[in-house]
Amino acid sequence: MVGVSFVFSSKDLTDFLEIVIERTNVASISLVFRHCILHHARQHVAKRHMALDLILDKLHKRYTFAEYHHATSILAVDFAEEFNDLLVCLDAFHLKKSDILTPGGGRSPIPKTIDGFLALRKWTERRFDIKITVDEKPIPIPTHKIDNFKNHVGIEVEWNNKTEFYDRDLNNFRLLWEMRVLAVGVIITRLSELQHLFDQLGKGESYGNSTTHWDKLIPKVESGGAGGCPLLLIGMGMNCYDEKN
What we know:
The chain is built from 10 helices and 10 strands. By secondary structure, it is an alpha/beta fold. It folds into 2 domains: 1-51; 53-242, Restriction Endonuclease, CATH 3.40.91.20. A hairpin with a 2-residue loop joins strand 6 and strand 7.
């Protein structure tokens, strides 16, 4: 027997059920079916929110979080030190007006700040040399470095890069997870809402729609870009902004 499962959003479920009801003459069966499916969906959403409750409320007020494949639970239980490092880093971070206004030409001070904080807690840039052997011949498997790595947890900060960097990060997480090198991948990026702020500060052209932001990341994740790798996504937006600094 082959089991097949599907992942629906609440809207997808509603749309699907409306089609079923429309094409089914037996109203009672449709209604029972609809009730059962929606009940299951609500339970699934509730469980997902329960896992994210492991993150402090004060951080939920400042950041947007999304998780896949139980990433938060894995971090909290199996990698408590690394999880604490991440939470303390987020708590200490503020999106400074001066950093946004810093001219381009190199890596932004925003990811540098996060990387620097993690480096003090022994997170390091990590490269991987992975090969498989076929008929006694080693075949290299190309992977990309992870900017912040500690004990099987990887954190990438994508502030203002081309969206292809998301593809690179997600594919890299997938490969390293499949090779049992990585347990959880974390991506910290900016929320799309910040574009209005950039426009007000006269920096809108530096942060275009084709660069890395939340609305570009989610579709890539939802389409399976990281495979089965547990992911925690973190979006920084206006609630992180410090205009006085």
